[in-house]
Structure formats: structure tokens, C-alpha cells
Amino acid sequence: MSYKKQEQTKPKDEPLEKEPVVEQPVKEDEAKPSEEKPESKASENTEKPDLAQEYLNMARIIQADFDNYRKRSQESIRQAKIDGKIEAIQVILPSLDVFKKAKQMITDPASLKGIEMVENEIQNSLNALGVKKIETVGKPFDPRYHHALSTMIDRTKPDGEVLDEYQAGYIFNDKVIKYSQVIVNKLKEEKNE
After folding, report:
1. 6 compared with 193, residue with greater pLDDT
2. How does pLDDT run across 121-134, given as a tens digit for each residue?
3. Which domains does the chain carry?
């Protein structure tokens, strides 16, 4: 059976109308499977390693941030312990100055011995914590460790030597926590011009 295609004929007076062309969406499977599928697979393959690399980089950054946080926390804890020790030591140090004054006023040898025992025990406890007394008398004046309260003239001693200690100074972990208050020998007069 053969069918003949019938042509539509319109009267000559009427213009021919064009039928609107409707494009149908093309499914990916139907459209050129040999060309587009390899590209999409290739793009998927390149995206996956890039995404994996991005996640790996983020994990490394987070790990580094955590390590830095841990180190900062340990350092702040260590510094807080040191600061706490320094505060406690600074509260105790004035009592040693009181012992020095008390020893000068006590005349009874037994009482003096008892005061010295208490003073030595406190000093030993401070030494165990790492506190060291700054040496002063007979040493050259050093402004890093000493505060000069006044000057005196003693021609038998060299210029700038500490003659007497008014209050003892102390160092903790190579840091001065209390300066020695001293009297310094001064032989040379300053010239005012």
C-alpha cells in the first residue's frame, strides 16, 4: 500500500501560515553519545580529585590550627603558673625584711637563734622554688638589680661599690621580682656645668 502525500492547498488569496516550530528537549542519552559522555566523565573525574584535594587541604589547615591552639594553651598555662608563683613570692618577701629588722632589735641569744631558724627556713623554701637573693654588699652597683637609695663616701672602698643593703632583692627564673635597695659608695663629685 502506498500512500500519497496530500498537499494542502489554500486559496490564492490567503497567505500561507507557517506552523510554529517547537523544539523538543534532547535527552543526554539520545544526543551524540560518542562525543558528550567522555567529556562529562572527564569533567566528573577532574572535579572529584579537586574536591578531594580541597577537603584534604581543609583538613590540614584545621589540624595546623588545632596544633597552634594546643601550643598556645600550653604556653599560657605555663605562664599562668609562673605568674601565680611570682605573686605568692612577692607576698612572702617583705617578711624577710622584717626578720632582718627584728634580728637587729633582739638582744636575747635564744630568741635571736629562733628568729634566724625561721628566716632560714623561709629562705630555703624560696630557694626550692627557684628564687635567688641578689648579692649586694661589696659588689659593684648594677642598675639592672639595684636601686640606689643614697650615696656615702668611704675612701677605703672603690667608687660605685655597694656599701650597705637596706632591703634585699630577689630573682626568679632570671627575672628580677624585687630590686635590692642599697647605699652606694660615691667618691667622685658630679660636675654641674
Report:
1. 6
2. 988 988 898 899 99
3. 133-193 (2.30.22.10)
